[in-house]
Structure formats: C-alpha cells, structure tokens
Design a protein that fits this description.
The complex is a heterodimer. Chain A is mostly helical. Chain A is built from 12 helices and no strands. Classes of the chains: A mainly alpha, B alpha/beta.
Chain lengths: 287, 349
C-alpha cells in the first residue's frame, strides 16, 4: 500500500482529529444560536422576576393562609428568591430545558441528517458524545446561572441588601449569601445533568427528539408520583427527584447537608449509568 | 444474461485486483448487510482502483446507499470486509475519513443556520484543516459549487438544487483522496448537473478517486471510467466502462444496398445476421469483422460502411437488472424501463 499513499495531497502525516477547543467552541456556537435554546433560557431567566414581583403584590392582599412557606419567604428575602426560584423550576421546567437540549444533541441531529456529517468529518463516536454532553451541560449551566443572577438582582431591587435572612431567622453577610446561591446553582445543575445523562442515553436510541422529551418528562412525573406513595418507601432511594425537596435546606442556619449530599450521590449514579448506556449505544449506532 | 456478464466481471476486475502493486482505493470482500430479515447487500466484492471514477448503478433498493454507508464506516457490515485506502473499516475510520469527502443520502444541514455557518460547523471538525485556513476553505468550496452568492442566506430557504450544492461543498472542504457522492445530481437543473460533471472531472484530474452512485445512466457514461452495476444487493457486473460495453453482445453494422443478398450469403457461411433499415446487423460472437467484410465482398455485395455497434450503458443496465423481478418499487422500475426501451425500438425500426 506504500504505492497508494504517494498520491496523497499532503505528505506529512495528517492529524487524526480536530483541536478539542475548536470543536467545543463550534458546538457552543451551534447550541447558543438555536432559536429554541435562546427562547427557553430567556423564559426561565425571567421566572425569578415573575415570582418576586408576584409575591410582592400578594403581600399586600390576602394573608398567607395556604401559601407554602417557601413562597412567602421570597417576599422579603434576596437570599431566598434565587434559591426558591431554582427549587420551583427544577421540578419541571429546568428538566424540560435539559432534556430538550439532549434530545436535539443526538436524536435531533440524526433526524436532520447532520449526525452523519459529524461522524464523517470525522469525530469519533466517543468524542462526539463528549462534545454533545458538554453542549448540554453548557445550556443547563447557562440557565441556572442566569436564573440565580436575575433572582439575586430582583431580590436586591425589591428588598435591598440587608435582607439575607435564613429560615432560622439569622441574617447572613452578602458574601455568605452569594456563596450559598452559588452552591445552589452547582447543586441544581448537577441534578439537571443527571436528567440530561438519561436524556442523552435515550437520545442515542432514536431519531425522534420528541421521544426523548416524552420519555424523560414522563419518567420524572412517574418518579414524582412514586415519591408520594409511602408504601413504596423502599423504592425512594433510587428516585432521582426524591432529594429535590432538600434544596431549601440551604436557607437554614446552619445548613443541613444530609439531604443535599445524598442528592449529589444519587445524581452521580444517574450520570454514570446514563453516560455508560449512551456510550454503549453510541458506539454501535448506525450513522 | 446475468450469469454471462457476471463471469465477464473477471475481465474488468483482472486489471484492478490481483497485482499487489496496483492500488485499490476501496475494496470489499464477501460484504453482507442484513436488517432483520431483509438482505440489503450480499456477497459483494467491489474493487475501486485508485484514481478511478466509479459509477455505482442500480435500481432503487439495490443496495447502493447501504454499500456506501459501509464503505464509510457509518454502518458495520453483518459479514465480510471493507478496506478503504488500504485500511479496514469501520475500525480505521478515524485514520481514513479525514481524507474522504462524502455526500450520503442527500444533504443534511441545519435550517436555522446560513449555508456558510453550516459549513463552518463542519470545517471546525475537519482534522486536516488548520484553524487559520477555515474561512478560505469555506469560501473556496462555496465558489466551487456555485453557491457563493447565496452563502449567507439561511439553509431553510434553499432550493433542492442549492441544498445539494451545499452538500457537495461540504465534501470538498479539504483536498481528499476519495470523494463519495450518493446521487449528487439529484434535484439539480441541467446547468447544475454540468457543474457536478466538471467538479468530478476536476477531482479526477487531481488524482482523487471518485465513487458516485446515480440513476442517470447518461451521466455515468459521460463521467465515469469504471462502473459497478448492483442488483438485489450484489454486483452483477463491474469493471472499466469501455470494457464492459465491449462485452455486451458485439455487433457489426454494415450498410449495403443489397440487404437480402448480404444476409443470405452470411447465413450460408454460418454467420448470424439480420436485415436492418439502413443495412444489416451481424453478430460477432463467433467471428470477426474482417471475416464478415471478406465474405460479403466475395459474394459480390457492395459494402458502403462497416462499423462496430456500441452497446449503450442503458442497454447493458437493462439486461443486467431486468433479468428477474426484484424488490424495487414499481415507479423506479418503470422509469428505468422507459429509459431503456427507447434505444431498442430505435434500432429495430
């Protein structure tokens, strides 16, 4: 075959893959140019404003009977608003963004006929999954960070800087409060990455992005129902969403880490399993 | 018929296959792919010499696209081997594919991005393209397929022909050793078809091996040096285009004013011949042209002109693929029949 290689246009041994930074930048460029990504992030980013303003008006009117303590806390608290917003949105809307992003990442590209182009470029299957996971993580992180920042600003505008009050009644320094909000962002993002890992695994099995969304959101609804049935207590440790109620623990002083720590372990398991399945399927997938 | 040509396949392959020095850009042995109970490709031994322009012909459902996808390592064969540029696919895909450009199963791009932006995305993934060269490479590729003026419009608004051109541009982003084009002229107007022909000719001049699948037999006849005819998932004929056309039933057209005497005198000498409007058609399977002319002259028949009758690719294709009913959709078959019947009738009249 030495004779065959003589006709090669380049004489130096050709590189086998494109620089990683260039590939990741290209993926980000694609992800953040997609209109639906921008719309979804924008809509979620304004939810803290809606919650903050909404509770502001509710304050003057009806008294707090029937309202959850979390919502009423947000009324006069710049620490609570971002964390409460994240806590409320992580039940349905944040998973929606992550699973939509994961659905577009592989199933959507396959439906478009563009996945083949990426494989032929070539990008190896493993690398492609890594790049896609990076893109999904970027969208998820962008959403949570933006929500937290806008929530914090809204809370400060409504209530001023001296209102970092915990559920336990203590007042935190501004730096401490921002630290806790930052932790909330990381924790929620990790939970959403667990959702995204499963969504990516589903995404490698189909050419229909709709199937991914339906499977993931359906699964979360089932988890939610199972989580309320006390006869199924033995099952609760494997339900990802079971630890999502522990986010408000960040508003206590001192913070009780138990629930959130458990949540991190649980999410880690989901991420490991999800990506393993996705990788196994990806390496045998027809292009 | 099919059988006789299939054995002839040795003729064409003989040039390409056995000598270890002569290089094959692509080679398959015993290739087979099944989807459930459906056999898409079976017992396929394909040889594509380096520098050749191979036209892959076959009715719809004959396994052309499946073969191409296996060549490119997109699909793992059920059985058999694929070698692309001397390396086994799909395992060597990362080594081989940077030097392979492909347009498979129609162009696939994102509707919300412009043509240029779509290409930029693919260019960023090209291992052999230095970052500094990306913008130039995209401009050149767009220019080459005649899409420069529409480069900044969204892909959503492209016509079928423009989409096809963008797909071609993606395959030509960097210099390639092999370019694989699946139905490249699909949806193109005559001018676009001519441009694709020029692009293929340009690739051939630069030593690039081209594998092109097509329904358009005239296209293949005009651009290809080699042909592989696929039918029901296997190659019923392959080799150099000229040689394959030779192996069709060879005939000699003799124009003469005295057709009856000519046919009689040939038949007396056990040479099959029949009268045609403009002369006689002599079957050359058992004899040669000089013998025929000599026989005619001896019998006192005036010969104005004698020339070899060329078997058209369409006729060859028809004989190879019409032999038995196949699983192709009826529309495609009748389309092929239409293409093929016309020359037959023309000759008979």
């Amino acid at each position: 075959m030495t004779a065959a290689t003589v006709t090669a246009p380049g004489t130096a041994p050709a590189p086998r893959r494109a620089p990683l930074g260039r590939v990741l930048r290209s993926e980000l460029r694609w992800v953040f140019r997609r209109p639906r990504t921008i719309i979804a992030i924008a809509l979620l980013a304004i939810t803290p404003i809606a919650i903050g303003v909404g509770t502001l008006f509710a304050e003057g009117g009806v008294n707090e009977q029937g309202e959850s303590p979390m919502v009423s806390m947000a009324i006069n608290n710049a620490l609570a608003l971002p964390i409460v917003s994240l806590g409320m949105m992580m039940v349905f809307l944040l998973p929606l963004v992550s699973s939509m992003s994961a659905a577009d990442a592989i199933a959507g590209e396959a439906a478009n006929g563009t996945l083949r182009g990426l494989m032929l470029a070539p990008v190896s299957r493993t690398r492609l999954l890594g790049v896609k996971a990076f893109g999904v993580a970027a969208v998820t992180l962008a959403t949570t960070v933006l929500m937290a920042v806008i929530g914090l600003i809204t809370g400060l505008l409504i209530n001023g800087t001296n209102t970092m009050i915990t559920l336990s009644g203590t007042t935190l320094s501004f730096g401490d409060a921002v630290g806790r909000i930052g932790f909330a962002v990381v924790w929620v993002t990790v939970q959403m990455l667990a959702v995204a890992a499963v969504a990516l695994a589903v995404s490698t099995t189909t050419e229909h992005p709709m199937v991914v969304m339906a499977a993931v959101m359906g699964g979360l609804i089932v988890f939610g129902i199972l989580g309320t049935i006390s006869a199924l207590d033995w099952l609760h440790p494997v339900l990802l969403s079971d630890s999502w109620e522990s986010l408000p623990d960040l508003l206590r002083d001192p913070i009780s880490w138990g629930g959130m720590g458990e949540g991190l372990i649980r999410a880690g398991c989901y991420i490991a399993i999800g990506y393993s399945l996705a990788l196994a399927r990806m390496s045998t997938k027809d292009g | 018929m099919t059988v006789s040509i299939s054995t002839e396949h040795g003729v064409g392959a003989a040039d390409a296959a056995p000598a270890p020095g002569s290089a094959l850009a692509a080679r398959t042995r015993g290739l087979r792919k099944t989807y459930g109970n459906t056999v898409a490709v079976d017992h396929l031994d394909l040889d594509v010499p380096e520098g050749a322009v191979l036209g892959m012909l076959g009715p719809n459902g004959s396994g052309k696209t499946t073969t191409i996808r296996m060549l490119l390592g997109l699909v793992r064969p059920t059985a058999g081997e694929v070698h692309l540029l001397g390396k086994q696919m799909p395992n060597a895909a990362p080594d081989v594919l940077p030097e392979v450009g492909a347009l498979v199963e129609g162009p696939g791009f994102h509707p919300f991005l412009s043509g240029r932006e779509n290409l930029r995305r693919l260019a960023a993934l090209e291992p052999t393209l230095p970052s500094g060269r990306i913008a130039t490479a995209i401009d050149e590729a767009l220019e080459r397929v005649g899409l420069a003026s529409a480069a900044n419009r969204r892909y959503r608004g492209y016509s079928l022909g423009m989409k096809q051109r963008l797909g071609l541009a993606a395959a030509l982003l960097v210099p390639r050793r092999i370019v694989v084009l699946d139905e490249p002229t699909n949806g193109l107007d005559p001018a676009g078809t001519r441009e694709v022909r020029n692009v293929i000719a340009g690739l051939q001049d630069s030593g690039t091996t081209v594998i092109v699948s097509s329904h358009l037999l005239a296209e293949v006849e005009a651009t290809c040096t080699h042909v592989a005819v696929l039918h029901n998932g296997t190659a019923v004929a392959q080799g150099e285009l000229a040689e394959l056309l030779e192996t069709g039933n060879a005939g000699l057209l003799v124009s003469t004013p005295d057709t009856t005497l000519a046919v009689d005198s040939l038949r007396d000498n056990r040479i099959p011949a029949r009268a045609m409007p403009e002369g006689i058609l002599v079957d050359l399977t058992t004899t040669t042209a000089p013998v025929v002319v000599e026989t005619l002259v001896r019998a006192g028949v005036g010969v104005h002109e004698a020339r070899r009758q060329r078997t058209g690719l369409e006729e060859l294709f028809a004989r190879l693929t019409d032999a038995e009913p196949d699983g192709a959709e009826p529309g495609a078959l009748s389309e092929v029949d239409d293409l093929v019947d016309t020359p037959h009738e023309g000759e008979a009249r």
